[in-house]
Amino acid sequence: MKNTNNMTFQDLGLASAILSLLEKAGFTIPTPIQSESLPVALKGEDIIAVAQTGSGKTLAYVLAILMGLEKKTSHRALILTPSRETAEQTARFIHQFSNQSVVLASPGVPAKTLDKELKKNPAIIVATPGRLSEQLQNNKLLLQNLSQLVIDEADRMLDLGFEPQLKMIQSTLRGQWQTLLFAATFGPKAEKVAELFLKTKPVRIQPENTETPVSSLKQKVYFLSPAQKNNRLLDELKQTKEGVIVFADSQESCVEIARFLTHHQFKNDFIHGDMNAGHRNRIIREFREKRFSILVSTDLLARGLDVDHVMTVISYQLPYKFEDFLHRIGRTARAGRSGEAITFVTPADERTYRKIKKFLVDATEKTLMKDFKFLKA
Question: Which CATH architecture has domain 9-205?
């Protein structure tokens, strides 16, 4: 996503130490969601920010929190995010720009370790709603003196069944705090989360084209038969040089695709929701470290995962929820980088294809199946 206002991070009034770390990490020009949300957040106002996957929402709220910590040593912040993967990634991101104390409260963190770290009264807690609500049952004062609350991926919270946990968390909050709510889409479910936590009228921030892919993404669509998918997948993978994520629609398909690629001597691994946290952590870590270049996944990783070297995303099968398609293709072409999304469409995919078509902006289309026609429902 390009900055349209020729603004730099220096123009946003950030501390010199933060600016130095941003420059070192290669961040010089803020994206629209950063340049529009940060000035408002730094004034202490509540915000609802809606922007595309890969548009830089995480950096926007992390910078707002770090500036709050620069101004007040007593400042405390809580970041709520729906999945363990996004929580871990956010904590890692904070460590990149700050030496502030951060505690990760998510599945996979041993209970004794978490209890010990939380007793140290950390400046920042990054948590999933389920794990945080468990801690609050034993310590209702855990969130006392909270200055900032960030709700990331608010549009996904209720889909994952977190409404009871969110209500429990909200019931323990006291005093005054700033709420920064971020989402890729803002519908009735995200609105419900906003009503729960926002006590003042928020500033709405929504750059143009929030529900379309970023401009640096190139897309290809293949209309083909199920029998043609494997050969086309091999052809595409032979042309890739960097990281690839291949999305499947089920755990069974995920495993089958990975085994097929292994048979054809492609170095890969797979990940899905039935794996334990330690196993998933290891796979994602090794993918980040480039120990293998192809990761096959269910929509478990459609949101939140940010790996710099992912240049290609392939939808081997379309998602069950069409909204997940936008998040799939958002795993590449992030933070101004380029990337490619490849989508396979079969005759049985008409219903989902019609819904995702609005996300296939300027896609190159090619029909590989002779006399391709969508099947009638």
Answer: 3-Layer(aba) Sandwich (3.40)
Burial 192-229 (b: 16+ CB within 10 A, else e): ebbebbbeeebeebbbeebbebbebbbbbbbbbeeeeb
- Answer yes or no: are the C-beta atoms of 310 and 341 closer than 8 Å: no
Sign of CA pseudo-dihedral 118, 123, 128, 134: positive
Q: How confident is the model at residue 335 (pLDDT cuts 50, 70, 90)?
A: low
299, 182, 194, 282: which is closest to 246 by C-alpha?
299
Three-state SS for the chain is CCCCCCCCHHHHCCCHHHHHHHHHCCCCCCCHHHHHHHHHHHCCCCEEEECCCCCCHHHHHHHHHHHHHHHCCCCCEEEECCCHHHHHHHHHHHHHHCCCCEEEECCCCCHHHHHHHHCCCCCEEEECHHHHHHHHHHCCCCCCCCCEEEECCHHHHCCCCCHHHHHHHHHHCCCCCEEEEEECCCCHHHHHHHHHHCCCCCEEECCCCCCCCCCCEEEEEEECCHHHHHHHHHHHHHCCCCEEEEECCCHHHHHHHHHHHHHCCCCEEEECCCCCHHHHHHHHHHHHCCCCCEEEECHHHCCCCCCCCEEEEEECCCCCCCHHHHHHHCCCCCCCCCEEEEEEECHHHHHHHHHHHHHCCCCEEEECCCCCCCCCC
The per-residue pLDDT of the chain, averaged, comes to 90
CATH number of 217-367: 3.40.50.300
Instruction: Return the bridge partners of 269, or none.
Output: 295
Q: Is the pLDDT of residue 333 over 50?
A: yes
Share of the chain above pLDDT 90, in %: 60
Domain limits, CATH 3.40.50.300, in the chain = 9-205, 217-367
Whether residue 62 has pLDDT greater than 60: yes
- Please say if the pLDDT value at position 53 is more than 80: no
What is the pLDDT confidence band of residue 209, given thresholds at 50, 70 and 90? Answer: low
Taking the model in full, what pTM does it have? 0.73
Render pLDDT for 138-193 as a digit per residue (tens, 0 to 9): 888 899 889 999 999 998 898 888 999 999 999 999 888 999 999 888 888 889 99
